[in-house]
Write a structure and sequence with these properties.
Layout lengths: L2 H11 L4 H7 L4 H8 L7 H11 L3 H5 L3 H38 L4 H28 L5 H8 L9 H8 L1 H31 L1
């Protein structure tokens, strides 16, 4: 990508070290190093800060990289879709197995081992999907939907930015609620089925 070279050239032109540039746009020195070596790509907010600091347009910074960025976004959207399929298939399979084996009055290990084995990939896929959404600053349904359709997710919208500030708290709360609800629903469902069968 050309952006890495543009960042390095502008930084050198201003006589700044990687650390000084990092401090100026509120990122780590390692982040600057990663950008300049094409290991990672700046998010939209960082691109705006860089363009202001370098006194150039965002377009001139990313010139030549737009098609590659579209390709990366398309691949990320496809990956998000695949992770969604894994979550649904494994999550549903886990629930169906638990109900079916309980109805057949099988032993607890026969019920739990495959149920947990199917639940783990669903949980990992959910975590990976959350990481993609976080890395691309997709915090609202509108932003996610636009991203999945290859449109501009407009991550700088106030609604999306506000949701982003509460992302960690929301993620922890959702995870805790999901664990509690999953345990309660699973326990209740097993109890009901055992009463019906027994």
């Amino acid at each position: 990508m050309e952006l890495s070279q543009h960042i390095k050239n502008h930084r050198t032109r201003l006589g700044m070290s990687q650390e000084q540039l990092a401090e100026a746009i509120f990122v780590s020195r390692q982040t600057i190093s990663n950008w300049e070596t094409d290991r990672t790509y700046p998010d939209v907010q960082s691109l705006l800060l860089l363009s202001n600091l370098f006194e150039v347009s965002v377009d001139s910074l990313i010139k030549g990289d737009v098609e590659e960025m579209k390709s990366v976004i398309t691949e990320e959207a496809k990956r998000l879709n695949k992770l969604g399929v894994v979550m649904v298939v494994c999550g549903a399979g886990s629930a169906i197995w638990a109900v079916a084996t309980t109805l057949l009055d099988l032993s607890l290990p026969v019920i739990l081992v495959p149920t947990v084995a199917l639940f783990i990939p669903a949980a990992i896929a959910a975590g990976m999907a959350e990481k993609i959404k976080h890395d691309n600053q997709l915090f609202t349904y509108k932003a996610i939907e636009a991203f999945m359709q290859g449109a501009d997710p407009d991550v700088l919208r106030e609604e999306n930015q506000k949701a982003g500030r509460a992302w960690w708290g929301k993620l922890v709360a959702e995870t805790a609620v999901a664990i509690v609800l999953g345990f309660c629903c699973g326990w209740g469902l097993l109890s009901i089925i055992q009463k019906l069968v027994g």
